[in-house]
Design a protein that fits this description.
The protein is α+β, with helices and mostly antiparallel strands. Helix content is 49%, strand content 20%. It has a 5-stranded mixed beta sheet with strand order 1-2-5-4-3. The protein binds ligand 0O2. The site of ligand 0O2 has 9 residues, from helix 5.
Length: 201
Amino acid sequence: MSIYGEYEGTLQRIMEDIEGRLFAYQERVKSETNENAYEYILARIKTDESMREKCRRKGLPETAESALSKLTDAIGIRVICSFVDDVFNIVEYIRSFDDCEIIEEKDYIRHAKPNGYRSYHMILGVHTSESDVMGNTPGTFYVELQIRTIAMDTWAALEHRMKYKKDIPNQELLVGELKRVADELASCDLSMQTIRELINS
Ligand code: 0O2
C-alpha cells in the first residue's frame, strides 16, 4: 500500500491541473511574444520509497498524514527557463492563482545558498473540492515548485550527484570549484539576459 493511500488520485489530478495552467501560460506568452515562457517542465509525485525515506529522516511516522500535511513536496514541479527574467515572470503568474495560497517562497536567486545553489522555490497550498488527509472538505494539498534557468539546473544536477558520492577525493577542493562555477554561470545568465534585451530593443 502506497504511503499516500486513498489520496494518490487526488495528487495526480492536482499535479496535472497545475501543469495544465503552466502549459496554457506557455501558449499565451508564445502567441503574444513569439517567445517561450519557459523551455520545459518536469512534474513528479515523490515515489513511495523516497517519501518514506524522507519521513524517517525527519523523524515522522510513515503515514499519509506525515506525507501530505507535515511534508510539502509530495507533488513537485520544476520549470526550466532560458532567461532569469522568465523565472520571475512565472513566479508572478503563479502568484495570480486565486485558488492557491502561497505557503512559502525562497528566492535562492537573489540570495544564493552558500554552496552556490540558485533557484526560486514556492510552496503552494492548492484548495480543492476533494477532502484532504486532515478531513477538511474543501481540502488543501501542497505543491513544491522549483523555477530556475537551464544553467542553474545543470549546476544543481551535478552538485546533487556529488552529494551521493561521499568517497570522492579532494571534496573540499571540489566544493570550492562548484561554488566558483555556480557564480560564473550566474554571471553568464545575466549576460544572456542583457543580450536578449539588446536583441529585442
Ligand atoms: P530531493 O531529493 O530533491 O527531493 P527540505 O526539508 O529539504 O524539504 P528545505 O531544505 O528547507 O526543506 O527546502 P529547500 O531549501 O527549499 O529545498 C528543497 C529542495 O530544493 C531539495 O529537496 C532539493 O531538491 C533542492 N535543493 C535545495 N538546496 C539544494 C542544493 O544545495 N543543491 C541541490 N542540488 N538541490 C537543492 P530535497 O528534499 O532535499 O531533495
